[in-house]
Amino acid sequence: MDKIVIRGGKPLHGAIPIGGAKNSALKLMAASLLSPETLTLTNLPHLVDITTMAHLLAELGVRIAMDGSAANGGHAGRAFNLTADTITSTTAPYDLVRKMRASVLVLGPLLARFGEARVSLPGGCAIGTRPVDLHLKALAQMGAEIDLREGYIEAKAPNGLKGAHVIFPVVTVGGTENLLMAATLAEGETIITNAAREPEVSDLAACLTAMGAQIEGAGTDTLRIVGRRELHGAEHAVIVDRIELGTYAIAAAITGGSLELLGGRLDLIQAVVDALHGAGVDFDETPGGIRVSRTRNGLRGIDVMTEPYPGFPTDMQAQLMALMSVAEGASMITESIFENRFMHVPELCRMGANINVHGSSAIVRGVDHLSSAPVMATDLRASVSLVLAGLVARGETMVNRVYHLDRGYERLEDKLAACGADIERVRT
Ligand code: UD1
């Protein structure tokens, strides 16, 4: 398994291009199931999770043509043409779903267009139990008959789905997206109350609208969808990845450097900008994106709680904790979205961080410096927080289990090395 080796202490300077959002691209790909015509997606990131979703859709019979290869620096996958004209299966098998929870997003589209779907239950996950009960309850409200049998969700709607008023008791990104896609082909009007407002949900709504869906309220907590008999083909560019953007902002901040993040948009990461500003980090808009720098000497500790968008994203919590580990004073980081999302804490502590977890909060007391250690993590954002810590640690940090990083960060080590980081991938 590959490892990443970092020799810390180099301030980062330069420009980093930010890719398309993984968490948007996966749902947009699933949306191709809603139409027999071709959906063209551009600005797709080149990531393992995207390949997993492509395998899943191909398994269902979606034809996928990739535009890439040499012209894209060897990356076969910046643009996909997805055509779901001949679906050969409505089963999402365990082997693919277990690799990636987002596979469950094929449920709503399959059910809406074909009246049936069989999707493996995603099962446990490193960041808490993460059930899909709210997806299922909402689809049942739209008339689906749902059984759980032998580890599979078996859903049927032989006469099609019917519009309904669904009130989500908690904000769920995936639940909102599954239901939104299902509602575009349901009979009548669907209202989703307490819908997720994440930019990726709005991106999906924009793509569905381009495919002929009628959707109002994207970006608010109430979505109104009037179902259509069918959707048509469209072309859509994936929104920029706000988590990749925020992660590199912290890379600039933690190393005391200055990075221009190309394609970055402040409005997508306002809560991160506000928090980091309080910690002593500066953000400026540039013609190509945004510039992040730490001009003042020290970083200050701040208190942050993760919340649904537009609050501080849970997917940035681990990276912020790495930053707070070397800030002056104490900070309290509270995780309100997922249980068990502090797996990076023991690893950061092995690098010399002073962090105590009390329930869903972590108290971070900033230390003068971190020291290198061999570390590993069991999830994507936890892994990248260890890379960020390695960028300032004294000595050589070895991050194991790099496959987590490859699920969400395209060419991470190349992008950091191009800005002066001493980082390399060791293939084993
Ligand atoms: C998505 C993102 C993930 C991000 C998360 C929250 C993708 C592929 N993943 O995950 O990176 O961290 O949003 O911003 O886009 N819940 C239930 N029952 C359900 C569904 C959710 O109890 O049926 C709970 C979850 O356990 C969690 C909370 O609701 O505590 C939010 O989860 P949700 O927003 O659904 O996260 P995902 O869509 O899985």
Primary descriptors:
428 residues, alpha/beta, 4-stranded mixed beta sheet, 24 strands, elongated, binds uridine-diphosphate-N-acetylglucosamine
Description of the structure:
With 428 residues, the chain is an alpha/beta fold. Helices cover 31% and strands 25% of the residues. The protein is built from 14 helices and 24 strands. Strands 22-23-1-24 form a four-stranded mixed sheet. A four-stranded mixed sheet has the order 2-15-17-16. The protein has a four-stranded mixed sheet with strand order 4-5-3-14. Helix 5 packs parallel to helix 6 and helix 8 (242-255) packs parallel to helix 10. The longest helix is centred in the middle third of the chain and has 14 residues, at 242-255. It starts with a strand and ends with a strand. Residues 70-76 have low confidence and may be disordered. Uridine-diphosphate-N-acetylglucosamine (UD1) is lined by residues 23, 26, 101-102, 128, 130-135, 170, 172-175, 314-315, 337-338.
